[in-house]
Amino acid sequence: MRQEVQQWREAGRPNNEVPGSRQRSIQTDPGQGRQQGSQTKMTSWIGLIADMMDNSTTTEVLVASIVFAIVFLVIRSQRVKLPPGTKKLPGPMPYPVIGNLLSLSKNPHLSLTKMSETYGDVFQIQIGTKPMLVLSGLETLRQALIRQSDEFAGRPDLFTFRLVGDGQSMTFSSDSGEVWRARRRLAQNALKTFATSPSPTSSNSCLVEENIITEAEYLIRKFKELIDDKGEFDPYRYVVVSVANVICGMCFGKRYNHDDEELLNVVNLTDEFGAAAASGNPADFIPILQYLPNSSMKAFKEINQKFLAFMQKFTKEHYKTFDKNHIRDITDSLIQHSQEKRVDENSNIQLSNEKIVNIVNDLFGAGFDTITTALSWSLMYLVAHPNIQQRIQDELDQVIGRERRPRLSDRAQLPYTEAFILEMFRHSSFMPFTIPHCTTKDTMLNGYFIPKGICVLINQWQVNHDPNLWQDPFKFCPERFLNNDGTMVNKTEMEKVMIFGLGKRRCVGEAIGRMEVFLFLTTMLQQMQFFKQDGEKLDMSPQYGLTMKHKRCHLTAKLRFALLTN
Ligand code: HEM
């Protein structure tokens, strides 16, 4: 089918013709005779307008006509010519100017899931004047993102994305060719090197594992201090610092204490960042909104500037103290790549120093908010389901005991804990969409023609709540991931959970993300039992964003036994 599209393109379309332009002339100008007619009509329109100049409603009519003409032309310019044998994308009728914006509601993941019940796994909506493809259904996502990964691996050129990292972000910029591929390989290699380098203090673990366990220990001590002092704590406020310390250690060789203003100023910006960078921000699709006074856009610009300043401080320090014989962290390793102009043995691509060293911003930015959100949802589910918390603790007591800390190598022996983490990812679906993609060429999907350059929303939330994939999808039930006797996690069920994306754009930090969630949780649960406060109602309704958070809430906890000291 894709070959057909290509043949159609080569055979039928003059060089500069925009897809859709021929269909437009067929639809609005079906015969040559009509051309003449339309000219006459044009003259009579001008005459009509001239006559009306005398009357009092002239200006209103003129303005209305111009607006109508602009809207008409814009809508016409969006139409796409379909190759023979392909189906037109289904989707709701858009309104002029705003498109389907009003149908998106405060929770676009829910509205688009509902629409997928009517229009299917592949449909089109329009935000403002821009069309957008919405993909749902596990098989459709696997088809697009794995089997047709090249065609669906682009990123759209969006206004908000251009503000991230001064337009240099590997994750958000619209580079999707060789430059992005080379940067992504650098990011993957840097993470691999610093995630797997051996620990100087323990022969059977790696440095990151040691760092995570140490941070989890500090966190438990902090929780204990707060409980002794006030009887309660806001978990998010402290978890975010511990998690940020892990990625800060990897990227810059630095850690902060829980009250450090410099770090808090940066990590507390994530809610605003997530709200603006979330899929479907109207400012990305209705250009006039970018120029109107808009407090959330102003905040978003400031957040990006603050974040960049924080990063630049570290990179400057690293350049000053760089020693190629002593590579301390990811920033040093990227500086080394940029100095040796050694990006990749597999390609001849040349990257600017800026493009190489800025990769650290992507890793730091993505590395703390996601994991903090996962851990804070985990704590919410644990206090909402004390029986589940108890079952995890029984498993930890049985497999690890109380004399030593949990390790990554214990994972296979802790199936219920693993099942809990998977169910937390699935049920919360706190990344309801991946970061938006865009198509890199004309293609086909499920029989539909998909034009090059269309923005693609990938609805992970829909897959995680699809009644065709999950029994009772709204029930929180870790057991759904276990085999019959509860001794193993079912791999097929596990692979149905969509939280890290799929294919060429799949999260580069997935291994570290899974490792951190497991080690923080098991270390905390081995030593502490968490509760909601007496009389406090848990509000677990998610607030839409790039990562969805629950409302901040204060919890309490007690030590299960005297703190471990080694
Ligand atoms: C539980 C934790 C995490 C979750 C749920 C998560 C999820 C995601 C998702 C859904 C995407 C977008 C995929 C797409 O656009 O198709 C993504 C991209 C990305 N993630 Fe993660 N992530 C997590 C942790 C991390 C960590 C720890 C790092 C770095 C240390 C990281 C680095 C990145 C980067 C650099 C990208 C952009 C990849 C690209 O555009 O090529 N993530 N992540």
UniProtKB/TrEMBL annotation:
Segments of skewed composition (Polar residues): 22-40
Protein's recorded name: Cytochrome P450 1A
Pfam families (UniProt xref): p450
Q: What residue spans carry the region label Disordered? A: 1-40
Describe the task this protein carries out. Cytochromes P450 are a group of heme-thiolate monooxygenases. They oxidize a variety of structurally unrelated compounds, including steroids, fatty acids, and xenobiotics.
Keywords from the named record: Endoplasmic reticulum, Heme, Iron, Membrane, Metal-binding, Microsome, Monooxygenase, Oxidoreductase, Transmembrane, Transmembrane helix
Q: Which cofactor does it need?
A: heme
Which Enzyme Commission number(s) are listed? 1.14.14.1
Q: Which organism is it from?
A: Xenopus tropicalis
- One GO BP annotation here? hormone biosynthetic process
- Where is heme bound in this sequence? 507
What family does the entry list?
Belongs to the cytochrome P450 family.
A GO cellular component annotated for this chain's UniProt record is: endoplasmic reticulum membrane
Q: What class of enzyme is it?
A: oxidoreductase
CDD domains reported for this sequence: CYP1A
Principal subcellular localisation of the protein: endoplasmic reticulum
Q: Please report the record's description of how this protein sits within the membrane.
A: Peripheral membrane protein
Mind telling me which InterPro entries this protein's record contains? Cyt_P450 (IPR001128), Cyt_P450_CS (IPR017972), Cyt_P450_E_grp-I (IPR002401), Cyt_P450_E_grp-I_CYP1 (IPR008066), Cyt_P450_sf (IPR036396)
Which Gene Ontology terms cover its molecular function? heme binding; iron ion binding; steroid 17-alpha-monooxygenase activity
Membrane-spanning residues where? Answer: 61-78
Protein's cellular compartments: Endoplasmic reticulum membrane; Microsome membrane
